[in-house]
């Protein structure tokens, strides 16, 4: 995209199209790539008469190939923020149960493994092990739950000292993997998956309580397609009683934003573009075929974007299970007991997402490169394509070797990223996520820009403030 430039007049448009004094907008003009994509999507809707067929829009496991259309999309950041999933109805449940890719991918899984990456979770780790084991008939090794793999990722003191003791493990015989030094979420999950012996690998956070029959929903759904990743409805956990509360406030589905972030979204379809990453089930076969997590990523963040795209583009699918519930402890500022006891590097998260963009966005990576987080430290908003993604003048080292992705793409004959946009056109087109113009507001007197200060990911809160337009200190 061409260099973003401020308009000459020191004023900006507001919601009704009028100008307000004191602000100077940085403006990104609509360009050919956006026009092509919008025209293509509109034409596709018109071609079917009254629009895209409802059944194919909502429940099709496969989408039409968009390769005939224009290949570039350069519109800006989606405006939709967070949205809670609705309480599932009978119709939505049956819809999810019948949304099946029949044929060669059906199989008959019998067992599952639960992997729990735990970093400084203490008593929560013990309570989670008990909840998982007691939620499955026969418990650990009883026929369905093959094993629980707890990965102690650098906890101090170690979990086996006070919580997962030898006596405790006699009653709940978990497999315990200990990292003396934390390797991060992806490394912990990968280590756990390597030890898992079940047909299906289930990743849970180390502070959850699975609800009745969750395991059966996982096994039954994945049995329809071994290339399917399933995600439960994530509800709320009372950490005093370790019981589920407020089920009607559950979350499940996410969509992908242009800067490789993700937000909660409501949808009538059981299929979702992106999983949040913490709670999911995947067949061990599909985990191995897709290569697990990218070993070029580190720490936390971005792995869910990579896993979602490599699944959808390489012949898989991601399905929400509206009748499988897992209660989850959310971090709350007002309750210090819920605070995380490990460091999360925003630097790692952005670098990981940049690798996902390099690997999967194809020619659309230039869209992600327009974002300050991707242009990175020391780069102006107008010079963002000389930043992290394009490997020029960046002050931050990024592992740009994506050969491991290319091997997966070739072996699984993965589709282009344009297919993903077409597959979820209902969200991107009808959700209003394709604006023709995008403005960044600059206050004339100070020269500072209006900036969103909220965290990345699905966190619902955030605030705005005036800050340096160059974002020099965002990740320092």
UniProtKB/TrEMBL annotation:
Residues 275-323 form the Galactosyltransferase C-terminal domain. GO terms for biological process: protein O-linked glycosylation. Residues 54-79 have a biased composition (Basic and acidic residues). It comes from the Eukaryota. The keyword NAD does not apply. Residues 80-96 have a biased composition (Low complexity). Residues 1-24, 50-102 are annotated as: Disordered. GO terms for molecular function: polypeptide N-acetylgalactosaminyltransferase activity. The keyword Disulfide bond applies. It holds the Pfam family Glycos_transf_2. Keywords: Disulfide bond, Transferase. Gene3D superfamilies: Spore Coat Polysaccharide Biosynthesis Protein SpsA, Chain A. One of its GO terms (cellular component) is Golgi apparatus. Residues 113-247 form the Glycosyltransferase 2-like domain. InterPro entries: Galactosyl_T_C, Glyco_trans_2-like, Nucleotide-diphossugar_trans. This is Galntl5 protein. It comes from Symbiodinium necroappetens.
């Amino acid at each position: 995209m061409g260099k973003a430039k401020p308009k000459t007049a020191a004023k900006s448009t507001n919601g009704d199209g009028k100008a307000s004094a004191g602000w100077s907008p940085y403006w990104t003009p609509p360009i050919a790539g956006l026009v092509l994509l919008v025209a293509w999507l509109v034409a596709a809707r018109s071609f079917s008469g009254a629009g895209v067929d409802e059944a194919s829009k909502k429940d099709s496991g496969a989408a039409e190939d968009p390769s005939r259309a224009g290949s570039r999309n350069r519109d800006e950041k989606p405006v939709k923020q967070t949205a809670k999933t609705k309480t599932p109805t009978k119709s939505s449940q049956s819809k999810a149960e019948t949304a099946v890719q029949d044929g060669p991918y059906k199989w008959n899984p019998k067992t599952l493994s639960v992997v729990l990456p735990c970093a400084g979770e203490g008593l929560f780790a013990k309570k989670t092990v008990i909840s998982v084991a007691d939620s499955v008939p026969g418990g650990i090794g009883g026929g369905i739950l093959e094993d629980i793999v707890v990965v102690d990722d650098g906890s101090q003191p170690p979990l086996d000292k006070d919580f997962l003791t030898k006596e405790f493990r006699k009653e709940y015989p978990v497999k315990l993997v200990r990292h003396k030094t934390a390797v991060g979420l992806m490394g912990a999950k990968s280590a756990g998956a390597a030890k898992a012996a079940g047909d299906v690998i289930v990743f849970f956070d180390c502070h959850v309580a699975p609800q009745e029959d969750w395991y059966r929903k996982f096994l039954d759904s994945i049995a329809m397609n071994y290339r399917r990743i399933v995600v439960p409805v994530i509800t709320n956990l009372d950490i005093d009683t370790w019981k589920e509360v407020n089920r009607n406030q559950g979350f499940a589905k996410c969509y992908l934003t242009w800067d490789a972030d993700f937000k909660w979204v409501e949808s009538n379809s059981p299929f979702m573009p992106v999983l949040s990453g913490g709670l999911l089930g995947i067949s061990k076969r599909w985990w191995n075929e897709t290569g697990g997590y990218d070993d070029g990523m580190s720490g936390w963040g971005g792995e869910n974007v990579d896993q979602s795209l490599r699944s959808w583009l390489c012949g898989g699918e991601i399905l929400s299970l509206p009748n499988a519930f897992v209660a989850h402890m959310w971090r709350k500022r007002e309750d210090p007991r819920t605070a995380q006891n490990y460091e999360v590097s925003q630097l790692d998260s952005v670098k990981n997402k940049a690798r996902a963009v390099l690997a999967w966005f194809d020619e659309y990576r230039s869209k992600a490169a327009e974002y300050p987080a991707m242009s990175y430290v020391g780069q102006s908003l107008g010079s963002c394509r000389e930043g992290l993604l394009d490997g020029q003048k960046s002050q931050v080292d990024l592992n740009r070797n994506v050969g491991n992705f290319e091997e997966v793409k070739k072996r699984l004959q993965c589709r282009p990223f344009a297919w993903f946009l077409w597959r979820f056109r209902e969200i991107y087109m009808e959700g209003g996520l394709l604006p023709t113009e995008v403005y960044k507001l600059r206050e004339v007197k100070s020269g500072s820009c209006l900036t969103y200060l909220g965290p990345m990911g699905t966190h619902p809160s955030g605030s705005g403030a005036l800050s340096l337009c160059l974002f020099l200190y965002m990740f320092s």
